[in-house]
Amino acid sequence: MLFLYGSAIYAKQYASVKNKIMDMFTNGIFHEEEIGLRFYPLEHTYHLTSWFWITPNLYFTTGIRYSEWIAKDITLNSNSSYLGIGYSF
After folding, report:
1. How far is residue 84's CA from residue 40's CA, in Å, rounded to a whole number?
2. Could you give the CA distance from residue 29 to residue 23 in angstroms, rounded to a whole number?
3. How far is the first Cα of the chain from the last one, in angstroms, to the nearest whole number?
């Protein structure tokens, strides 16, 4: 009923902008880390056929996420914490 989850992303990124005003290219690194808790108070499985079923679930989630993009002369970063409710099917 209670799950601890996490994820991590690391990627090289390239950006190019070309129009009448500017012609720009940059590259950088993007990374993001996230950790959280997910609580499923209700779980039920519906068997539609003998080989196909769905498991709809109401859940509550909370967590922390940090992301950062580092380009040549620019660093953009953000921290966020969240609390939410969701439904998966």
Report:
1. 12
2. 21
3. 16
